[in-house]
Write a structure and sequence with these properties.
Keywords: Carbohydrate metabolism, Golgi apparatus, Isomerase, Membrane, NAD, Transmembrane, Transmembrane helix. This protein has 358 residues and is an alpha/beta fold. The chain has eleven helices and 13 strands. Helix 2 (29-40) packs parallel to helix 3, helix 5 runs parallel beside helix 6 and helix 7 (210-220) packs across helix 9. The chain binds nicotinamide-adenine-dinucleotide.
């Protein structure tokens, strides 16, 4: 069929050493950037995305168009669709799966808890079931989150720190994902690497994230809300630029060992890893807003409110020595440099569209 032909073309690798990668959540923010990076260096890449309406689907379609032009075909479908996944694995012997499809966002979990269970738990299990039975078994790299550190008060966060106090259902679903991944590694010998991303930002970013809607609201002259603790110090985040995250993802894929299929029986054979991918330099949201004001040349109308107990933690800060050691991970973009690139993209992207009413 045409569908199969598109998949075979998209999966074609340009050099012998290259991998064939299934990228789930390919029309998402991180998925788009990772897919492009893999394609550019010669890997075979197939995307999968259900184009859900959590945020602006036009933006997802625009990313898809960009991927299409780069030769990455994005299959429209859900990671819960066993038949579809089986069909994909029948057509393409994937060496790797980069699993980025998820229900993201911490506050939305209070409105739609079921979508977190659907995508982050049931969907992940469905994908792992297919991977476990695939021949060859692909090595899996997937996105966990810094949110697993929850109400932990020890900074910076290290991979060995406690993760037993999730502050939102989103965090709990990512933590559950880590436990599920460990089980599949142990029983079925799947090679699995979890990456705990810290607040990723950049061009083609997510409209539900603060740096994005602050930009929009500042330009529109709309008031923005900054949350702060009882000490009147604003929330701080270890903002990490998308290109740094992409490098970490690619390096995790490249260093992933093959799945063994033998699970815990052959000791030490199947690989299970978890890494922080952050910037190691937390910035208070007040500072983020100052940088945006400078770049946009507009003063923000600010309102300060106490941090609600709905999922956001007060600060995040990554210790990245493990990723540095094993992945050669080294973030190089500071917040101002990264935001400059975001703002440039934002203005170009929304020029002429409805949003540019400012
Ligand atoms: P995103 O929402 O832009 O991308 C996720 C994509 O997955 C979306 O395009 C969505 O349509 C798709 N998707 C969702 N559920 C699906 C399903 N059931 N089947 C198929 N497709 C589905 O988010 P992102 O920022 O690109 O995040 C990528 C991954 O990184 C997610 O797992 C997210 O939880 C994780 N993460 C992101 C950040 C960040 O700051 N951006 C931080 C920590 C972790």
């Amino acid at each position: 069929s045409r569908w199969e032909k598109r998949i075979r073309t998209s999966a074609r690798v340009r050099s012998r050493s290259s991998s064939t990668v299934l990228v789930t959540g390919a029309a998402g923010f991180v998925g788009t950037h990772v897919s492009l990076a893999l394609k550019r260096r010669g890997d075979g890449v197939i995307g999968l995305d259900n184009f859900n309406e959590y945020y602006d689907t036009k933006l997802k379609r625009a990313r898809q168009e960009m991927l299409d032009q780069a030769g990455v075909f994005v299959v429209e479908g859900d990671i819960n669709d066993r038949e579809l996944l089986n069909k994909l694995f029948d057509v393409v012997p994937f060496t790797h799966v980069m699993h980025l499809a998820a229900q993201a966002g911490v506050r939305y979990a209070m409105q739609n808890p079921a979508s977190y269970v659907h995508s982050n738990i049931a969907g992940f299990v469905n994908l792992l079931e297919v991977c476990k039975s695939a021949n060859p078994q692909p090595a899996i790299v997937w996105a966990s989150s810094s949110s697993v550190y929850g109400l932990n008060s020890k900074v910076p966060f290290s991979e060995k720190d406690r993760t037993d106090q999730p502050a939102s259902l989103y965090a709990a679903s990512k933590k559950a994902g880590e436990e599920i991944a460990h089980t599949y590694n142990h029983i079925y010998g799947l090679s699995i690497t979890g990456l705990r991303f810290f607040t990723v930002y950049g061009p083609w970013g997510r409209p539900d994230m603060a740096y994005f809607f602050f930009t929009e609201d500042i330009l529109k002259g709309k008031e923005i809300t900054i949350y702060e603790g009882s000490d009147h110090i604003s929330v701080a985040r270890d903002f990490t630029y998308i290109d740094d995250i992409v490098k970490g993802c690619v390096s995790a894929l490249d260093s992933a060992k093959k799945s063994t299929g033998s699970g815990g029986k052959k000791k030490g054979s199947a690989q299970f890893r978890i890494f922080n991918l952050g910037n190691t330099s937390p910035v208070p949201v007040t500072k983020l807003v100052n940088i945006l004001e400078k770049l946009l040349k507009v003063k923000a109308k600010k309102k300060f409110l106490p941090l609600p107990r709905n999922g956001d933690v007060k600060f995040t800060h990554a210790n990245i020595s493990l990723a540095q050691r094993d992945l050669g991970y080294k973030p190089t973009t500071d917040l101002e440099t990264g935001l400059k690139k975001f703002v440039k993209w934002y203005i170009r992207y929304y020029k002429g569209s409805k949003r540019s009413s400012w």
